[in-house]
Amino acid sequence: MRLLQEHKEKQAEMQSRAGAAWDNPDNFVFTDELGRHLARQTVYQRYKRIVNDIGIPAARFHDLRHSYGVASIRAGDDIKTLQENMGHHSAAFTLDIYGHVTEQMKQESAARMDKYIQSLSTE
Q: At what angle do helices 91-121 and 79-86 cross, to 10 degrees?
């Protein structure tokens, strides 16, 4: 949140410098110096620089989408909500892609229940 707040402040400075040339009617979070959406190539080049700097140069931009999907499920979002957020045609398609996460969650749940049951038997 701190980084987003700092970015918002920088964007306000850019807007002030741009004056009447500022063009951000949709209130984009990430813009160029005139408030317009970022060019696809600019975003891709910056992404590749970042993943290279952190040591995962093979990471694809699309991997961000998959990471969001996995994080969403692990955070407790239901499949229907994720399906809509991802723009998938059906929840079945979403489950086909992210089913491995739900299987892992089932195993973790079973392990928690086993631990809980074991704790009851030792009381």
A: 150
Instruction: Note whether residue 49 is domain-resident.
Output: no
pLDDT digits (tens, 9 = 90+) for 14-60: 999 999 999 999 999 999 999 999 999 999 999 999 999 999 999 99
How far is it, in rounded angstroms, from Cα 28 to Cα 116? 47
Per-residue model confidence as pLDDT tens digits over 84-98: 999 999 999 999 998
Q: Please give the Cα distance from 87 to 38 (Å, whole number).
A: 22
C-alpha 21: how far from chain center: 31
Query: Would you call 37 helix, strand, or coil by DSSP?
Result: strand
Question: Cβ distance 70 to 98 under 8 Å?
Answer: yes
Residue 20 belongs to domain spanning:
1-38
